[in-house]
Structure to design on (280 residues):
DNA sequence: TTATATGCAAAGCCTTTGCAGAATT
DNA sequence: AATTCTGCAAAGGCTTTGCATATAA
């Protein structure tokens, strides 16, 4: 559980707040907005600051412990776990829920296209928009 | 040139401002932010309102004449043209430039993955992050 | 003529920044 | 003890909203 030691390894400080943000992120199975994380933490620590959440998330992203994802117009964060680099996101336009999917060969396809034009690819973000199973049924 | 008649068909009004926004969007080969469009239009019509640009873009998106794309943290718009649904975007993290690419079978792959879980897919947005050819060279 | 659109100003998100006091190492 | 972090308040982008006036139909 101490991926967080990476913080100390950088000569930075492992504060209670940073542990809380990381823990909240890890508990939130999928992805969470800064605001959701702050609300979750506030249940235990009333008055926890959004500012601190943002600053900590920036740090975690920089250390490679978290990843920022853009779902539609909303930004969210997810903990980086082994293999989790590979999933992609679906956003339901009706209920707003998000689902993870795995598209085989996606990365290969994109790498092929980018290498042809000399673009050095770091990361691929894919977001699908539509209606989740539940909402699709209700509308049918 | 009168895709814009779709506006009148909806019982709405085809104003000079709406023509200007649409024209600016069509001229901007790739994608443009609301602000870029507003600046461009302001050269001809000083004092043109950002508000109007936003409202018009919303309308164009609703009518299917424009598409909103999310490039990293920035929102941009592009005119919808035949076949243009199929391209995807690369963002250079160094210079901020964006490039269009075409990834064959991308949509097929995503459709396969979504259909398995009953998600009704409307649109797929893919953004690759990295360094464009020019920036990659300078750093090498 | 009448409903719709624009201009302007103001408010609303989400996120970042500045600074003094608190806390980690 | 020294430097880094947090809390708070305030500012900053981008986008939306409200309302009176102007305008398309």
């Amino acid at each position: 559980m101490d991926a967080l030691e990476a913080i100390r390894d950088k000569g930075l400080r492992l504060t209670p707040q940073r542990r809380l943000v990381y823990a909240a992120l890890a508990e939130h199975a999928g992805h969470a907005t800064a605001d959701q994380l702050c609300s979750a933490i506030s249940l235990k620590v009333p008055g926890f600051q959004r500012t601190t959440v943002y600053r900590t998330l920036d740090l975690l992203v920089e250390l490679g412990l978290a990843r920022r994802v853009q779902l539609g117009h909303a930004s969210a964060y997810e903990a980086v776990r082994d293999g989790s680099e590979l999933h992609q996101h679906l956003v339901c336009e009706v209920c707003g829920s998000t689902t993870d999917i795995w598209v085989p060969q996606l990365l290969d396809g994109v790498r092929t296209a980018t290498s042809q034009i000399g673009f050095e690819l770091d990361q691929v973000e894919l977001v699908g928009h539509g209606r989740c199973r539940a909402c699709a049924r209700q509308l049918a």
Summary: The mean pLDDT of chain A is 93. Residues 8, 11, 13-16, 33-35, 50-51, 54-55, 74-75 of chain A lie near DNA strand C (CB under 10 Å from a C1').
